Amino acid sequence: MSSSDDIGEAPWAARAPRHSLTVSVLAAAAEHTDCTFSKLALAGRVNLEKLFGGTRYEPGTGADPMAIKRGRLFEEILKKDDYAELLNLLYEQDAALGALGADVRIARLRDLSVPAGRSGLEVRAEATRRELAKIARRDWDASTLLDGAVIRARIGGEVAYFEADGLAAASNGSLHVVEAKSFPLIDGRCDPVKLGAACAQAGLYAALVRAQLREDGLPSEAVSDTGFIVLPKNTRLGRPVLLRQNLSFHIRRAERLLSLAHLDEAVVQRIEGRSFPAAGTGAAERIEGLSHLMDQAGTHYRPECLEHCAAAKLCRERAYKAGRLAILGDQASREMSGVETFDRALDLAAGADPLDHERESARELVRARRLYRRALKGAGP
Amino acid sequence: MSLQTLLSATAYRQGRAVRSALVRHRAIESDPVFLVAWQNGFDPFSCAAIAFGQAHAAPELFLMSGSREADIEAREFAAAAQRFCELFESYAVASSRVDYQGRKLEVPVWPAQVVIPNGATLRLLGRIGRRLAGMRHPDPAVTAVLRRFACHLLWLARHADLPGQQIVLSCTDFLNAHWVSAMSALECESLFALEAWIAPPGRTRGFEAAVAAERFSAGPQPKPEDAQTAARLFGALEKARKGGGEGPAVEEALGALREFYRGLTSPVWALLLAIAGRERDIPAGAHLARRIERDRIAYGLHLEGLGRAVADPRGLRFRENARAAALRRDELERAAALLEVEEAIDDPLRMLPRLLSGEAIEGEVLTCTVSRTDGATAVLCTEEPCTLPPGLALWWSGAPFGRGWEIERVEATGAGSKVTLTQPVRKDPASCPAAGTRAVFSPLHFDDHLSYALSLPARAPWTHRPPA
Ligand code: SF4
Fold first, then answer.
1. pTM of the entire predicted model
2. Which of A238, B171, B182, B295 is most buried by its number of CB atoms within 10 A?
3. Same domain for B267 and B372?
């Protein structure tokens, strides 16, 4: 899913390289709703990858081209004979879809003859909106499957268009999101991390469609909490299988993200006068500018950032230099509640006076140090 | 967790990883098979290249050229399969007799060992095994060697789940079990970064060394830039093949691919060798011998059943029924429990989690009286208050078997406690702690149930059978 948009003036992003929003950009941002810097970048459509390009913090990006090829081939297999295989699988899974019998209508929104670029997307978004309305109203000529839907949404106060890969619709007015992924389901099991990411993306589609329906005064419950992830089964790409997934958690999270993408005034005021640097600036200057902006806006580094955010290498270094326990991960920070840095943990372990909120962790650290030292001396078991 | 944080904080301050174990808890054989595999981005059930061998020679690299022709693909896999089987089975040259579950078994004197960079490589090997098990070729010899290879890979993937096994040594898992750095679990999956924290070059600190080392991948997924190069080279090969047959253009493209994967493999190979060499020098835990024995029996049984599995691959089950799953779960749980006991007895650092959680007590033995007729009584003076209730059984870590010591009384003494423990059965004085020494009493002990496999009826009850 990708988007094209008309970016309004976000003064902090005026000079920065921009990119269009995609569902993967949104899904990545959903992992960092607690990071103001990342929200600023999202709201301003700042292309962080470009900004970090050529610096020592450049993210190692780019998917494996062979994996992309596999994904495309799998999609082609699914699209063969008007999605015959996919529809069969959906029939098996969903009694409501099954009730449709042979009366299948596929809305090929991708094939509409529309101009390229934003105006074409606008036309497709309108067509999608009409199709969605028919499904939600349970019109007799509502589509069974939407191919190439485009959803218009406001992100950070600006209009963006998202292109969906596929949406399945049931005849009883309820619409299910279908997400095709090419990682395999082996002996009934698949990679849980990849499945989680696929569900997060499906949850975002669902949240965007619900927002669209609400905007049109239609019942948003028409979008079901149940989504389908289509995967190749076992070793062969040509045998798809459908996983029924409850997306309610992911939809709620996505809705929260969409609402959070609107920056509040306080944040905008806090960074007054600062902005993301221009792509053409020298590497050192760019990093300096980004670091200042991070200081002012605030960040919330966690190791997961390394998987989702192009700024992660810089944030990791900053967190490391500050000696923050957060670089170990959420669990370590949670379990050492009240203790923020490695140095403080060591001081407390050595017997420094704890503050009130550090007392519990300090007691544990003192014990750990004493027992560890004794074990090292060989005085233990 | 406080211990983990303390060790991470120490590593942070020192700028290098610190040890979280005083002894080595896994065997590293003198001449294991080292293996590096590279994923084929297009097909998760295949690999682009696989390299293996022993330390004394350069690794043999086998390229899977991604040919759409089944014959070429099978033959490429067969070449790797043939060599791997020879190597992996070569450990079974000499055998000796052991008693195993009432049977006299002839098993190899030493088990094979395969050293791989990480868990992702193991999962890839399992997937390749899964695919090759069903691959057929008109030449029965090719089919047979592919199946044999598949059987080995599937068995390795399964055996690797057994806690404490050492036939498969995943280096990241091994290092993470023995060292603590100031990296997150996610970063600790990078073998290069992990090693950079353990042995940072020169005066570099672990963090900087790890950041620099992140440009390398230990497989199976190459770094994005390398994946782009691989895709370009495979594209060139495909084009050359379209041009017709096996001409010089194809040879040239294959040569470029081989060179590329050799380049990717060589730093990983050097790293595996360096890690094995360094870690082998660390003294091994006393109970390693028991686990080596278990491994050699498992290896022997695998080789014994190999002929059957190759002849009839239907015997290779990919899904377990309820009975098999229950038995397997029981086996894994018992192995994990036994491993915890063995490691804690071998290594005081491994006992720390039990002490920190308050389930175990440590202190100075004030008195220990052993009666020839009535058992024994020990009085332990702990520096920390003992919160364990009277009546609870604990085992002295110096002799963690048989009947446990019962807590009879706990009395407060300043900051700590005076704990009286009694042993109701007659004890050999050697299995009691001596007065004036320090001792640990914990719930960890060698229980008979850890050695006995679960017994289930051969046929699952109707509640656990799939619908007819
Ligand atoms: S890497 Fe930095 S900017 Fe990105 S989400 Fe994490 S903390 Fe925020």
1. 0.88
2. B182
3. no
